[in-house]
Structures are given as C-alpha cells and as structure tokens.
Amino acid sequence: MIEMTDSQALHRTVLLTEAADEVSRAHNGIFIDATFGRGGHSRAVLSRIAPDARLIAFDRDPEAIRAAAAIDDPRFSIVHAPFSEMKEKLAELGVTQVKGILMDIGVSSPQIDEADRGFSFRMDGPLDMRMDTTCGLTAARWLAQASEPDIARVLRDYGEERFAAKIARAICRTREETPIERTAQLAELIARTVPKNKNDSAQHPATRSFQAIRIQVNGELDELKRALSAAGSLLAPDGVLAVISFHSLEDRIVKRFLDAGAHPDKAVDSRIALPADAFAPALWTDLRRIKPSVEECEVNPRARSAVLRTAQRTEALWSEPAADADKRKGGRR
Ligand SMILES: C[S@@+](CC[C@H](N)C(=O)[O-])C[C@H]1O[C@@H](n2cnc3c(N)ncnc32)[C@H](O)[C@@H]1O
Question: How distant, in Å, are the alpha carbons of 73, 117, 201 from that of 121?
C-alpha cells in the first residue's frame, strides 16, 4: 500500500498483510500500532478488527501525527510520544492491557526523502536526523559535542563501520575549523576519509555512518528494548506482538528478547543487555519469523532487509486488572 498525504509524504508499507493479519488475530479489544508512520498498517488493522474494537497509534514524529488526521474512524486515536513510553501513556488513557502490538521500526520514507529532515546523504539539508523535531539534540549538535572515542564507538557499534576511528578523527579535525552542519558536508567528509579501493562499491561510503548517527540521535536501540519490555507487560494472554525490523542490530535484539522469554530454561546470550524483566519465565510462545515475498521485494526493494517476528503472550507473570476480573467473573470477586 502506498500512503500519500501530500506531494512529498509517500510511504510504501512493508509486510502489510502479514503484519496486520498477525497483530489483529484477536479481532476484538484494544490494539496498538506503535509506529504510525503514514498509517498503512493502522488502516489495515482497522479493516480487520471488530466495530467496537479500538486502535491506539503512537509516533514520535509530529509529521506522522499530522498525517493521522486523515483517518476518520471513531475506533482510532493517536498519541505523540516515543513508544518506549507506551505503557505510561496508555495508563493515562486508562488502558492496562491490549490484544495486539505492532512495531514497524526505523524510519519512514517521508523522513528519508525530505532533505530538510537531514537523514539522507543523497540530498543536502540541515544535519538534523531527529524523528521528533520538538526535542533532543540534532545530529549536528551531537557531532559538535561528542568526544572522538564516543563518535568512533557509535560508528562502529551502530554502523558496523570498519573505518570508524578514521572517520571520527576526520570529524573532530574538521570541526575545529568549521562546524559540520549539513548532510552533504558530512557525506563528502566521509567519502574523502574512507580509502577508495576499500569502499563497498554497491554502497555510498557514508551509508553506515549515517545509520549509526541516526540510531544514536534517536536512542533507537534503547527505545526498542524498553518498548519490548513494556509490550510483555501490556499484552493480555494470547495477545500478539509483531515487530518488523530492517537491520540486524534491531532484529538481533527482538530475536534474543523473544527467545529468552520463550525458553527461560536455555542459557541467554548476555552480549545484549536487556532489562531484567525481559527474562521472566515463558512469557512468549508460538514464535514466528516472516520475510517479505519475492513479489513484494521486486516492487519495493526496501522490503528486502525487512524481517517480521511475531510471538504470542502466555499467561506467565500476568495479573489481570481487578476491574476486568470482576467483569469476567460477573462481579463475583
Ligand atoms: C517504518 S515507519 C512506519 C510505517 C507505518 N507502519 C506505515 O505503514 O506507514 C516508522 C515510524 O516509526 C516512528 N518511530 C520510530 N521510532 C519510534 C519511537 N521510538 N517511538 C515512536 N515512534 C517511532 C517513526 O517516526 C516513523 O514514522
């Protein structure tokens, strides 16, 4: 599905049918789209759930919130907040349990395609990269303040960049003379720094560094870990978690989180530190891994790197809110 709210804002939803089918399995109750974007998944979920069900969406990008105004459905509402805060924001709405949570993480096409957002090394724009333009440090501010070892660590850990130390050094030398404030300026600096013959020819030399800086600026991995943990305590028994990720760093976090919850008896890989309650016993069952079809990848090359992981919540460590228990037991409690 291609979503268009104005001439620029275009997003082709990945794994649309697969993710919407999985997350709305319960059909009735409250469902969460944690990453509204341009609403492709939200619309598909709304077309599957019951007339008295609810869909509450989240996005941290004010442009996504603006785009959500196009959805005219009394079952739908949206919250402007990072999804790491979904448990608290839902509690403010009186919601303590839900039947499905969908997260289609990463950036939307409009974020990448609009030069002014500063995500793309292909177009010149201010070096911003914040998904939420109302708060936080821009990429330019972060690059101006961070130490050389910190920049190198981010490029290495979040971008798997072989030349992390070299690029960090070049950034720090350059900023002594001139502030780095434009995407083209940073892209050219990286292209000049990375040895020519060692470039991965299929990729722009700045690809990995831009990804790394974006992850740092938006705290993306921490957001994901906190949201997974929140999902574990929000989902009712049999509720479904569906997460689409686009690179191995994120997919590894999702996989390890679900594996650890599904097989608490097995040794857990400790290389990725997850919140302690992520390791609660047997929280998840029916783990599935779904890749986009060959046809989808042909039409939308961005889908090639996508992985959808789903899991169903068990009853373990789940306590039913008293009011719901009363209702279910006909007020016998
Ligand atoms: C890949 S797009 C989602 C596209 C959406 N599924 C659709 O069909 O249009 C990712 C969206 O998630 C939002 N996002 C990413 N990380 C977020 C976070 N931590 N909290 C809230 N929103 C986030 C981005 O702003 C972006 O709009």
Answer: 38, 11, 16
| Predicted pLDDT of residue 195 | 82
Closest CA to 34 of 235, 263, 298, 207: 235
As given in the structure block, the two tokens for residue 15 are 């794994």
Q: How much distance in Å is there from the Cα of 107 to the middle of ligand 1? A: 6
Beta bridge partners of 250: none
pLDDT at 327: 57
Q: What is the sign, positive or negative, of the torsion defined by CA atoms of 129, 184, 123, 212?
A: negative
* Three-state DSSP string of 1-17: CEEECCCCCEEECCCHH
Residue 160: predicted pLDDT: 93
The per-residue pLDDT for 8 is 39
Q: Which residues line ligand 1 (CB under 6 A)?
A: 3, 11, 13, 35, 37-41, 58-61, 64, 82-84, 104-106, 108, 131, 223
Q: In order along the chain (333 residues), what is the average pLDDT of each group of 10 residues?
A: 49 94 97 98 98 98 97 98 98 97 94 94 96 97 98 97 97 97 97 76 88 97 97 96 96 95 69 52 90 95 95 82 54 38
